[in-house]
Amino acid sequence: MSPRISFFPAALSLGAVLFAANLVAEPQVTGSATPPAEPMSVWFEAPARSLSKPRGAMTKTGTKDAAAAPARKIDFLQSLPVGNGRLGAMDCGGIELERVILNESSVWSGGDYDGNMHDAYKSLPEIRKKLFAGDILDAKKLLDKSFRWADGTKRYHNDQFGCYQTLGDLLVVDTDAGNDAEAVSDYRRDLNLMTGVVTTTFKRGGVTYTRELFASKPDEAIVLRLRADKPGALSFRATLARPAQAENFTARPGEIFGMRGQLTFDFGKDGKGVCYAALLGANVAGGKKAVGKDGISVTGANEATLFLTAGTDMHSPKFLKTAEAQLDGVMKKQIQDVRDAAAADHGALMARCRLELPVTDSSKLPTPERLKQMKKRPDPALAALYFQFGRHLLVSSSRADSPLPANLQGIWAEEVNTPWHGDFHSNINLQMNYWPAEPTNLSECHLPLIRLIDAVAKTGAVTAKSYYNAPGWMCYHTQNPWAFSGPSNTSAGAGSTCGGWLAQHIRMHYDYTLDEKFLRENYPLLRGASEFFLATLTPEPKHGRLVTAPSNSPENGYVIPGGNKSSSLTYGATYDQQIIRDLFESTANAARLLKTDGDFAAKLDAARAKLAPTRLGTDGRIMEWIEEYKEVEPHHRHVSHLWGLHPGTEINPNTPELFAGARKSLEARGDASTGWSMAWKANFWARLRDGDRSAKLLSLLIGNGAPNLFCLHPPFQIDGNFGGTAAISEMLLQSHDGTVTLLPALPKAWASAGRVSGMRARGDLTVDFSWKNGAVESVKITGKPGKAVVIVAGGKRIEKTIPSSGVLEFTLPDLP
Ligand code: FUC
Q1: pLDDT digits (tens, 9 = 90+) for 66-81
Q2: Which residues contact 343 (CB under 8 A, 6 or more apart)?
Q3: Whether the predicted pLDDT of 181 surpasses 90
Q4: Which residues have C-beta atoms less than 6 Å from ligand 1?
Q5: DSSP letter assigned to residue 629
Q6: Interatomic CA distance for residues 709 and 495, integer angstroms
Q7: Which residue out of 429, 433, 678, 680 has the highest number of ligand 1 atoms within 8 Å of its CB and is therefore the one to mutate?
Q8: pTM, whole model, 2 decimals?
Q9: In 537-655, which residue ranges form alpha helices assigned H by DSSP?
Q10: Beta strands 184-192 and 41-44: pairing type?
Q11: Atom of ligand 1 nearest to the CA of 638
Q12: Cα 200 to averaged position of ligand 1 atoms, centre (Å)
């Protein structure tokens, strides 16, 4: 076969190339019936489809060619996501036009500023007085006036608070016109979750094309490798585009193509927005490469690899030099070595924990087809795939040294104006992202969150002073990379416990790892969060119980008694009280364990005993507020008043009335909701030991998600992926009550047989086990020699000690 002649001369502009690619319709594609060898694969038999119009707003300040717009119609909900903890990429798998959506975790507009109103606390006594007197609407007026900037949006807006944004698109346009007329067969695009590599293969005109996309952690690069099995069959143009604040440039003539820009930070003279840059290079075998001002063109190659590095000045002024050095470094290596190192690095984390659930015929189907089928018949192994997909997303977006934790879209945003700023929402979403970290054996992936909490504790000290004149730290519910902790426009000043909830993650990390050094280092965060509440809790008028005031139950409202007006503003919402109870306990226990701060621990114990308790209403449900108010939205997505059931632990089988009340509350809230809400409910039902109901919620979550398994709020929000993964772990193993309870909530559909390896239990334990017909068969627990472990399985309570080998193994039928 002779080398093909490029249809597009190298001199043709990017616009013309992309425009032409748009005119040349994507060829007809038929898929391959062969599923990937790795069962833990998400896969498609076709490229991502094109939408009639792009999602998200378009702006005029992007790379010069509006012709890049057609690419943005390619649906990222059918892409396959990879990442290295900082760089993310989504492979859409097109034939004529391949779109790889790029992310870098610090591509944020906005910047560092003090959003606090420093004298807000002066109104606090009056706000409390009104709240306690039942003048809720007046209290709200005063709160809004004194806790919120008079210039409204000027302190909390995309241009100040900022917005997480896509880095842009890597576009690869096929310029090999010779095969335009030929159909494409045997198409398959799969993401191997265990290696983090997306492989796309197809046949066209007698040539088999193979592409691999991966994000390398060892080499800090996104790599797209293209191969053809006939010499000279690869010809394409590659470029970088972005809908806003972008220009293309030649970073090194003849070698490196780039895109750069500066994002908006509209904050007076201090407003210098983040600068970013992405660099693209290519290695080519058996063909020609030209690097021009519009991109890189490759003609007649057998194999070509595109390498992308990127960075921003958020963390280093030398980001461009670093990206260039990274590009030079990776391009010097053998591509197979680069690929294998990336896969091994990702795989090492993924392989730590495995899950097998009953396999049906559906497991051979492409993922979107499988999602359709699951509505007709159960597909337990799909939950195992979802579980590993969630772990893959965490490994890909949050490594031990990642500069930032996973935001609302992880590191997979396709837009410039991401929903809800693509920020760190701490009234559930950010915490949910990290629920699977410990139980699914990705403990170090938890650390970027802990570092953000550390940063928030610093900014949050100013917030605590400003709104409460209090010591310690607190934060409201939206954070950005600069650890913004003040109130947002929408919920100025009501909820004060987001920081307390975040601090739970210190306890979680310690409980699983027993890492005393970690606890000692982070004890000040627990202490600071507790100090704030110790200083600000106030006795409520009826019984003198300690409560938060002001307060809310995110983000539900209630009907104010004696009228038809409603509000979300209150004092002592159940959720606040539960979080503080947990926080005080964690802090006091940590102090005792570290043999420090004894007086403080005693104060916490005393205050804890006076906190308003979780109570049941006359209908037997857990009360969401301190009084039995009627909720504005009975089916509200937030189920905050069950925080004490999950992720808290105060509602448990040893509190049977509350346990039953939680069930009633959940029944009343209903099942169907937004993505993350259903994920939370799957966790609740697991804690309530109802496996079938958890499985139902999981099915709703997965079934209402995107074809690529991304959770849909809608829109795409990654929290539900992580929450769903955590729920699966809660169904199989629970350890929050001091035992290792196996199969606490096993659904009937998963009962026939299954196997878990490398799951983690509190107490620094690693647990493998298998089951048959709903009964645990074999158990292996790795831990510290001499440690006493209580295992609960099949209603039996088994007390054992880890032997000197560090490995405890037994089979259940052997037991008396
Ligand atoms: C909370 C939720 C919304 C959404 C947003 C990001 O405010 O109530 O449903 O998830 O966060």
Answers
A1: 667 788 899 999 999 9
A2: 195, 196, 197, 214
A3: no
A4: 408, 420, 425, 429, 555, 637-638, 674, 676, 713, 717
A5: P
A6: 32
A7: 429
A8: 0.96
A9: 574-593, 598-610
A10: antiparallel
A11: 8
A12: 35
